[in-house]
Amino acid sequence: MSESTTERPQDRIATGVPGLDTVLHGGFLRRGVYMLQGRPGAGKTILTNQVCFHHASQGGRVLYATLLAETHERLLFNLEPLTFFETSRIPSQVSYLSAFQTLEQGGLKALVEVLRREARARQATLLVVDGLVTVEESAQTKRDFKKFIHELQIHANLVGCTILLLTSSGEEPVGPEHTMVDGVLELTDNRLGRRAERELEVKKFRGSNYLRGGHAFQITRDGIVVYPRIEALLQDPSREDPCKKNRVSTGIAHLDEMLQRGLPCASTSVLFGPTGAGKTTFGLHFLNESSKSEPGLLFGFYETPPRLLLKADALGLDLAKKHKQGLVDILWYPPTERILDALGNKLLAAVRERGVKRLFIDGVDGFRQSAAHPERISHFLAALNNELRVLGVTTLYTSELQEMYSRDVILPISGISSLVENIFFLRFVEMRAQLHRMLSVVKMRDSDYDSSLREYRITSRGIQLSDTFQDAESVLSGNAKALSPPKRKGLLKKRSR
After folding, report:
1. Is 175 a residue whose pLDDT tops 50?
2. Phi-psi domain of 375 (left: phi exceeds 0; alpha: psi -120 through 50; beta: other)
3. Residue 455: CB partners within 8 Å, gap ≥ 6?
4. SS3 of residue 136 by DSSP
5. Which end of the chain, N or C, is less packed with Cβ atoms under 10 Å?
6. d(Cα 293, Cα 327) in Å, to the nearest integer?
7. Over the chain, what is the mean pLDDT?
8. d(C-alpha 7, C-alpha 91), whole Å
């Protein structure tokens, strides 16, 4: 790969495939010859036709030549349900040519001549050869095959035409054609246990930088959508870190007091706790402070938006009203067969579009469950968190602990403590044959905080804190022991704002 610092937007042909132009830093270079390879069913034909019809919509002209592939009638029949397919552009802007008979009767030389002639006649600015493997099989020597590609390169340079060559993935890791073309894109469909995930990788791309590694993609009704890998896309944050000193309220007055007036602005926090501890409830309080100056977003995996709004109403929070006013949005993606990078890209798109400043991600474990390669998750979160910080977003994650009562705490995501500034623990504690909920602040980076262990109760007026464990020991073990007869102390009421 070589980097170009002089390339201009007009030197590119945009693919129009969501995410792919981002991977290619703008699209294919004009006059370039590119190979798209993959096994049957990988998505090569859909991807290429999507590029063709987008190019036509931008005023370009396309010649699509097939070699021993499916008939044109069958090809168009399969493309018709896709929204990018426009019959009105055929044949004025997108022409289909069957060149197999020419190859059979006249060989590679005749094929080159007919491609040149037909491309000139149609004033094609994009030429597609679908079935390069047939050309290779027809070549008497590897030299003849390389000469065929060289002749196409000459044509591309002479008339300013970009060429796409479609072929099946060969057994050889590097064939002679790979050394000739300007770029190689490979499409794969990988089996991961019982699930499968499609992936696109740019193997070679002369004259430009690009996002390396594999990028997941889906075939949808609108065609192919590529999701650039978050770690590659956000290797560096998109802007300077604003690093403001102001604080952001948690929505719980006495918790704000413990944190020295709230969470640091544009920081990332994680709330650990077992099931039933009230993690979502804390997040709803945080989100309930959303306003015009601090729009909020709930990005969740487990509870539907209507259930979350009902829960907030039962806590005395006016989240439903703020949701109706557009101050809070709720996005729900149940953790079924999701794509990790699709979730990351959708989250960032929503944050940027809405100008979100308060982000509640209910269940960071949903990201982990969506990862085809779980070892990626810490790198994914590091890149995501860095971008959220520079966007001025104060983020609160929740993460479930498997142990409800245990001295040992095993974090579900390795290394997450180094990825966030603030860590809170919710635990169940037994004391005097009663079950209590306990909150502890474990970490606040670059800030003082109250390290007291506080009981919290979930009431119809929201979360209320008290100092129940002031005269107890072994609280963190889950089995607290009172040091002296307990004093009757009322719950600390939520401060009115």
Report:
1. yes
2. alpha
3. 429, 436, 437, 438, 439, 465, 466, 467, 468, 469
4. helix
5. C
6. 9
7. 88
8. 32
The 3-state DSSP class for residue 159 equals helix
Over residues 296-312, the pLDDT tens digits come to 999 999 999 999 999 99
- Give the model confidence (pLDDT) of 436-450 as tens digits: 888 999 999 888 999
Which domains are present in the chain? 9-228 (3.40.50.300), 247-482 (3.40.50.300)
DSSP state of 213: S
Query: Does residue 3 carry a pLDDT above 50?
Result: no
Neighbouring C-beta atoms of residue 75, cutoff 10 Å: 17
* Res. 2 pLDDT band, cuts 50 70 90: very low
End-to-end CA distance of the chain: 58
Return the structure tokens found at 198. 């499609």
Task: Name the residue among 316, 289, 267, 206 with its Cα closest to residue 421.
Answer: 267
Distances (CA, A) of 372 to 341, 376, 483: 10, 9, 50
Q: Which residues contact 457 (CB under 8 A, 6 or more apart)?
A: 437, 463, 464, 466, 491
Return phi, psi of residue 30, to 5°.
Answer: -60, 145
Burial of 449 per CB tally in 10 Å (0-12, 13-18, 19+): middle
AA letter at 287: L
pLDDT of residue 474: 56
Contacts of 44 (CB under 8 A, 6+ apart): 36, 37, 38, 166, 187
Q: Which of 250-259, 338-347, 400-409, 449-458 has the lowest mean pLDDT?
A: 400-409
Angle at 378 between CA 375 and CA 381, to 5 degrees: 135
21-42 residue pLDDT tens: 999 999 999 999 999 999 999 9
**How is residue 485 annotated by DSSP?**
P
What are 197's two structure tokens? 């995930």
pTM for the model stands at: 0.86
Give the tens place of pLDDT for each residue, 96-127: 999 999 999 999 999 999 999 999 999 999 99
- Sign, CA torsion 223/229/235/239: positive
- 10 Å CB burial of residue 487 (0-12, 13-18, 19+) is exposed
C-beta of residue 392 within 8 angstroms of C-beta of residue 357: yes
Alpha helix ranges (H) inside 80-206: 100-121, 132-138, 142-159, 176-180
* Tokens at 279, concatenated: 């993690």
Q: In sequence order, what are the beta bridge partners of 338?
A: none
